[in-house]
Amino acid sequence: MHISGYTCILISLLCFGKQSTAQPNVRTHPSIILYDSASNSPNMLNIREESPANTMVGILCIEDLNRYDNEKLTCTTDSNMASLNLLPIDGEPSLQFYEIATTRVIDREEYLTFDLRITCSDNGSPSLNSSMLVTVNVLDINDNSPTFPRVKYEFDIFEDIAPESVVSTVNAVDHDDGENGRIEYGFIPDVVSGMFGINPNSGEIKTKVGFDRELEDTYLLLVIARDKGVPRRTGTALVQVNIKDVNDNIPQFTRPNFDFNITGDIESVTTVAQLTAYDKDLNTAPLVYALVQVYGDNSSFPFAVLSDGTIVTTTNINLDEATVFSFRVSVSDSGDTLSLSSYTMVNIKYKPGGISE
Ligand SMILES: [Ca+2]
Ligand SMILES: [Ca+2]
Ligand SMILES: [Ca+2]
Ligand SMILES: [Ca+2]
């Protein structure tokens, strides 16, 4: 380490200012004076994390006013995080200077502080020594980005969820200190801001509107977490929101009404027609069809409507005259709590065999 002339003078002045007033020619323990420009607390030093190895943390001034001419002072430390390097400062023979320097790069997220005990001994007989416990605070830099525990989150909400309902909360972790570790949440890009909102402080995601699964059943949100350090560091996570089905659509027949033509001699249990309907909801069970009402003479009605919408004869049909059978049919879905139905009119026009229309 290069010590400038100015620093030499400054250190010497500081140490001289603290010199003891022991009597000459009386052996005394060396006194250890810690010099540090960054910390005002005694026996306390600061080092900025991620500083390269061999960064100076502070300077020690060892004073042994009364050492004999041949006595040598030696200082050591018990810490493997810092070393003591003798500084080549000429001047007062009773003073000796050491630089305290780091031996490695120090991560504040691993060591908030570390202690080093400094012991200085003379080589007289018996050896006289002094020691000092120094605590080094590791000062934070913004070297950690906010990190979500998962790359992707998946949440389900029902399509009838009310606006301003909570979907879930996502949180990132930032191990830095203070503003360097304080996180603010948002969406990028902000295209879904009309549908969802995120609390910048808590990461709570809420709905802002109503949803319709039949229009859109999945939303992908890219959540960004920004710390407040300088420069700001960021982390992202993907949030997939699945819109779950609610039975909010009535099944619909594929036509407003159904007209079929049948002719001649038709045996019992013959399929004569098929009704069709659809439902936009995610039905787990098939739609169910049922005969609701027969118009006209009910007693000789020769058809049944099966639950799958098939219309079959229930007797032989062999009539002398053209006839129209009119009846009303329902179709129902299988909603969990509520079944929805709609209705249609069916006309089956019968003609005896051999008669052309
Ligand atoms: Ca950070
Ligand atoms: Ca840090
Ligand atoms: Ca439905
Ligand atoms: Ca639905």
From TrEMBL:
Q: Name one GO biological process term.
A: homophilic cell adhesion via plasma membrane adhesion molecules
List the membrane topology term(s): Single-pass membrane protein
Gene Ontology molecular function, alphabetical:
calcium ion binding
Ranges for the Cadherin domain?
39-148, 149-253, 254-349
Mind naming one GO cellular-component term on file for this protein?
A: plasma membrane
Assigned keywords, A-Z: Calcium, Glycoprotein, Membrane, Repeat, Signal, Transmembrane, Transmembrane helix
- Locations listed in the record: Membrane
- The answer to whether UniProt assigns keyword Protein transport to this entry is no
Signal peptide stretch: 1-22
- The source's superkingdom equals Eukaryota
Q: What is its main location?
A: membrane
Full protein name: Cadherin domain-containing protein
